[in-house]
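TICKET: design request
STATUS: open
ATTACHED STRUCTURE:
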């Protein structure tokens, strides 16, 4: 992810403690940004080893599905150059068909991102910053067994379009990246099973599943001056499987 320079810039990455969010945060940090991340554990030290590398970052505990927690979240910034909303939730074994679980997933994956985007609008305006939502290929199609996840990611796509229009007057750009299967704790149910992984990779034209850094590169691009005329749209990053 060389070639980007975010020196003097400030970035907030929600869900930046692990997985795709952590890869994005590490990319911004390496490019010189003041990098603020959130996670659900009490302290940065609780993310050890492979869970996430938070060295050099500022950490805040945040459950982005909790409206009161989001309202009180204060990272101490007067201007913001990028807000990456990577926190997400999914439930397996058909739990998302239960209405309480459905509501819980939507709170984290859709309501929380909307609240965060509006909460930081003024400081993003001050920095003429960028909002990047981490969506999914599920933003574009149904996912059997996961009605809440699919509905929330589909909603996030149209939210991107709407806020891209609504925030343009403030010179705030709003975009979404839509990963396919990426190696993370959330997708371990697939990639930790050798047969299931092999079957999945056979369907991908590039012959492999994604890595968090594959997504982070696109996020840094969309947050950079190279993407200054891009807003209200999405980039699918799935190795060509949806082509």
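STATUS: resolved
RESOLUTION: sequence designed for all positions
ATTACHED SEQUENCE:
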């Amino acid at each position: 992810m060389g070639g980007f320079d975010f020196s003097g810039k400030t970035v907030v990455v929600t869900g930046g403690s692990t997985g795709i969010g952590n890869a994005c945060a590490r990319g911004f940090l390496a490019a010189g940004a003041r990098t603020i991340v959130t996670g659900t554990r009490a302290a940065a030290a609780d993310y050890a080893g492979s869970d996430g590398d938070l060295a050099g970052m500022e950490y805040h505990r945040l459950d982005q599905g909790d409206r009161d927690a989001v309202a009180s979240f204060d990272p101490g910034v007067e201007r913001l150059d990028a807000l990456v909303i990577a926190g997400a939730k999914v439930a397996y074994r058909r739990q998302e068909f239960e209405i309480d679980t459905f509501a819980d997933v939507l709170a984290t994956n859709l309501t929380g991102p909307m609240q965060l985007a509006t909460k930081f609008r003024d400081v993003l305006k001050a920095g003429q910053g960028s909002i990047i939502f981490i969506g999914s290929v599920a933003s574009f199609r149904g996912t059997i067994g996961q009605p809440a996840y699919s509905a929330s990611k589909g909603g996030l796509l149209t939210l991107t379009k709407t806020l891209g229009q609504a925030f343009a007057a403030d010179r705030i750009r709003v975009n979404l990246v839509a990963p396919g299967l990426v190696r993370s704790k959330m997708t371990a149910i697939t990639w930790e099973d050798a047969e299931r992984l092999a079957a999945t990779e056979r369907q991908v034209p590039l012959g492999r599943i994604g890595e968090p850094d594959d997504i982070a590169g696109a996020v840094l691009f969309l947050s950079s001056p190279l993407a200054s005329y891009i807003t209200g749209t999405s980039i699918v990053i799935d190795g060509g499987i949806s082509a």
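CLOSING REMARK: Helices lie at 19-30, 67-72, 99-119, 121-127, 147-166, 188-191, 194-203, 212-223. Strands lie at 10-14, 34-39, 58-61, 82-85, 130-134, 173-179, 233-237.
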